[in-house]
Write a structure and sequence with these properties.
By secondary structure, the chain is of the alpha/beta class. It is 28% helix and 19% strand. It has a six-stranded parallel sheet, with helices on both faces. Strands 11-16-15-13 form a four-stranded mixed sheet, with no helix packed on it.
Length: 468
């Protein structure tokens, strides 16, 4: 037993060091926490991944659902609970910041709705903190995960424009990456219109019917709906999973609608935040100017201002087509870009909640896929190439399953690639490059799943450029 424990310890150190060597993303969260239980839910999940990022800010804001209250005290309460489990999380992976560190980054935005909180004399500790974060001598982009209104960011941008030269301001704008779900105040559209060069991912508008983020909690006959039920959440997150789990409230309107803003920032081998069109846990988005549709009346709230067409391209809704493993039917839509990964990211969250109280040997940890070739390859038409993942490992010694598939929408080649007569569930499979007239890209995804409890998946993406 001592020898086995020693081996597990060495594997843990190696896994932790690998995580530490990856360049971390800088992340700021803007949240209208308390407007709906889902922001508290998202915050609990977010903190179980706190070692993945350099968390630069946790800012309480208003929104269309909560116009005059920025509930900063609720962020503090969840961070207090996180502080009690952080030492145990460190037993599983390195890099979890202390609660004391995070508390220095909790800030409050102005308690005014939308553009009422933007302009001369509208600075807040939240907007000033955003400017300070952007001005750091750090070339990495800053990812703003917007879970509510964005007037705190808008005020920071307003002040930058007023106080800096065009060149200095543009350097700061170039650092900004905005991931938001839909427009939850009128400052979101203002930012896009006033600062058209800023990287912005959103389903524009206040009617949520067609929003991509709904893929996290939308009912569908072709997908596992049990994994976001209150029963599943009770069993895997809330009850018997430490004090942090008890901070996760029951679902009221829908589970974690804001969580897709950061699901795509998790380092899992699939996500590539700078390329939303590649697709990942947070969904898939394409860069274009969406057609303006006059919004339908929303039964939940009245929008106090007019919506307008987008003035330029943004990262927004894209469709995926996939065959359901539940009923074998084909489903097409933008919600499917998230739903296709739902079991994977829910299992991952459940495992992380186990980390909050279990010793290393009693919890599951994700496999570590390995490719025996480059992630970017060039293949001539008609040429055969082997996709090879020999050497893939699991830190817990679990048995592994492999599955290779073509992510058709992520590439430029729109035909379907077949592995037949070979099975796609082997670690090494061949494919024959199709005939093309011009260079085309094909995205192959390797999904490796362990047989632990809960089963965890990690990925490798191979981008094949096919040349004539």
């Amino acid at each position: 037993m001592k020898y086995v424990s020693f081996l597990l310890f060495i594997l843990f150190l190696q896994t932790g060091l690998m995580a530490q060597n990856q360049t971390k993303l800088r992340v700021v969260v803007l949240t209208d926490i308390e407007a709906d239980p889902d922001d508290s839910q998202s915050m609990v999940r977010f903190l179980t991944y706190a070692n993945q990022w350099d968390i630069e800010g946790l800012i309480a804001t208003t929104s269309i659902h909560q116009k005059n209250w920025a509930a900063v005290e609720s962020i503090h309460a969840i961070i207090d609970a996180y502080g009690k489990v952080q030492p145990n999380l460190l037993k599983h992976e390195r890099g979890y910041p202390t609660a004391a560190e995070l508390k220095t980054r909790i800030k409050k935005g102005l308690e005014k709705y939308g553009m009422e909180g933007v302009g001369e004399g509208k600075d807040s500790e939240g907007s000033e903190w955003i400017i300070r974060v952007l001005e750091k001598n750090d070339s990495r982009p800053v990812w703003f995960c917007v879970w509510g209104g964005s007037n705190c960011l808008a005020q920071a941008l307003w002040k930058i424009k007023q106080t800096k030269s065009t060149t200095e301001a543009q350097k700061l704008y170039d650092k900004i990456r905005v991931n938001t779900i839909s427009d939850q105040d009128d400052s979101n559209p203002w930012i896009r219109k006033t600062f058209p060069t800023i990287f912005f991912t959103v389903t524009p508008g206040y009617t949520y019917e067609k929003a991509t983020w709904r893929g996290i909690n939308a009912q569908s006959a072709g997908f596992n709906n049990a994994v976001f039920s209150n029963q599943w959440l009770t069993e895997h997150i809330q009850q018997g999973h430490s004090v942090l789990g008890t901070m996760y409230p029951d679902v009221a309107y829908g589970m974690e609608g804001d969580t897709p803003t950061f699901l795509g920032l998790i380092s899992n081998g699939l996500n590539n935040p700078e390329h939303p069109n590649y697709g990942g846990w947070g969904g898939r988005y394409e860069f274009y100017t969406p057609v303006f549709e006059k919004p339908k009346p929303n039964p939940y709230f009245k929008v106090p201002h007019q919506e307008e067409p987008e003035s330029h391209p943004i990262w927004t809704n894209a469709n995926d087509s996939l065959v359901s493993s539940v009923d074998k039917k084909t489903y097409v839509g933008n919600l499917e870009t998230i739903m296709r990964w739902r079991e994977d990211f829910q299992n991952d969250f459940a495992a992380r909640m186990d980390w909050t109280y279990q010793p290393y040997t009693a919890a599951n940890h994700p496999p570590v896929p390995k490719l025996n070739h480059a992630e970017n390859i060039t293949v001539k038409s008609g040429e055969q190439f082997f996709l090879d993942a020999k050497g893939t490992t699991d830190p817990d010694g679990d048995a592994l399953s492999y599955f290779w598939f073509q992510y058709r929408e992520a590439g430029t080649y729109q035909g379907n690639i077949s592995f037949r007569p070979y099975a796609p569930n082997m670690y090494r499979v061949p494919f024959t490059a199709p005939k093309v007239e011009t260079p085309q890209t094909i995205h192959f995804i390797l999904k490796v799943s362990d047989k632990g409890q809960p089963a965890l998946s990690r990925y490798k993406r191979v981008i094949a450029t096919i040349i004539p």
